[in-house]
Amino acid sequence: MSEATTLADGKWSCRSCGACCKGFSFGPVEEHIITGLKEKDVSSHWKPAQEEWYVTHPQTGEYYFTHVDGHCIFLQDDQMCAIHGRWGSLAKPWFCREYPFSVVEHEKGVSITVRDDCGGFHKSMDDGQPISEQTQEVLDIIRPVPRQRFSPQQVVILPGLGVSVLNWLQVEPVLLDACHTSAIESVVAIRSALYKMAGREKPNMGMNVQEGFFMLTRALAERIERVSIGPAMEDSRQHVLLMLKDSLKEGPISKDVEQYFVRILRTRILSKSFARLGSLPAGLGFFLLEWHIFARRGDRNMIGPQYSRWRRAIHLRPFWEQVRVLQNPFSHIFVEVS
Q1: Alpha helices by DSSP H, the chain
Q2: pTM (global) more than 0.90
Q3: Would you say residue 131 lies in a domain?
Q4: Which of 77, 92, 107 is the last residue of a domain?
Q5: Domain of 43?
Q6: Taking 90 as the threshold, does the pLDDT of residue 309 lie above it?
Q7: Which of 94, 114, 215, 233 lies 20 to 30 angstroms, CA to CA, from 101?
Q8: Of the residues 62, 92, 122, which one is the last residue of a structural domain?
Q9: What are φ and ψ of residue 68, in 5° steps?
């Protein structure tokens, strides 16, 4: 496998904020981790573990740490990990040690990025450790499940146009270079580059972008309100609904916030996370909706915690399924934005 690819200016350092211990499903945990904690008599070292501290999945038999009030049972009041504090990082599950890095394998190697649901993503842009200096440590983590592999039959780069993975990997650096001073300008530049490479004219979808944003936030809110979920997800639903229903902010967007969203955009491209919505246009249209919801809420330090919590919540399966239903309107936003 060739050398890992990262953003040239990508940075990250842990802020000990505890956000990674909230709003996720904590598993599957390796069997030797469970056994090791039992041997260490974890319940005598951490009082909450005197109750049920792990559960077994009824279908797969996999182990998961339990939730307490929406967070991992091992999260301390100081937002630090009870396991790490007593026995070090190797006593923790693989996903705790790998987070917030996203490692995606593809035909030319691997891409390593930092997930934008990390509570410290917005701060690490300034003074984090270069990601390039952390890649080997990340790659050395032994996982009980395979890494994500980017291997679709085709990558849809424009509505109705797909290319091979190898062709996408040649296009990807061009699109990263097209990301400039603002989210809107960057997406327009990406779209222009793609239509130029494809030898096509941009069609007119007949959509007013502002009306499109309003329609999509309302449609998504209505869908998420109707989803049947368990009590453990209710806080996440309420945060998503609050962000969607309070999205009609007005006012200027600071340069600092635009730089934040441009970094998120570049991360999405390199991580290939747009593929979750089936196409690049749908993925970038959804990114624009998120920019619309958050960019006018204040400075980067105000927006960052709200946005990272949104990302952890919106990717919970019942909510993400509702996002996927709207992928065609997201593609239309991508085509029409100017």
Answers
A1: 31-39, 42-45, 82-87, 94-98, 121-127, 135-139, 165-177, 183-198, 209-226, 234-245, 255-271, 280-294, 300-314, 317-325, 327-336
A2: yes
A3: no
A4: 92
A5: 27-92
A6: yes
A7: 233
A8: 92
A9: -130, 115
Q: Counting Cβ atoms within 10 Å, is residue 122 exposed (0-12), middle (13-18) or buried (19+)?
A: buried
Is it the case that residue 295 has pLDDT exceeding 90?
A: yes
What's 321's DSSP letter? Answer: H
| Confidence band for 206, pLDDT divided at 50, 70 and 90 | confident
329 and 256, same domain (yes or no): yes
* Judgement on whether residues 198 and 308 belong to the same structural domain of the protein: yes
In a domain, 318, yes or no: yes
Span 109-157, pLDDT tens digits: 999 999 999 999 999 999 999 999 999 999 999 998 899 999 999 999 9
Do 78 and 181 reside in the same domain of the chain?
no
Q: Please check the confidence at residue 88 and state whether its pLDDT lies above 90.
A: yes
Same domain, 195 and 77: no
Asked if pLDDT for residue 2 goes beyond 70, the answer is: no
Distance CA 317, CA 232 (A): 13
Q: In a 10 Å sphere around its CB, with 0-12 CB exposed, 13-18 middle and 19+ buried, how is residue 199 labelled? A: exposed
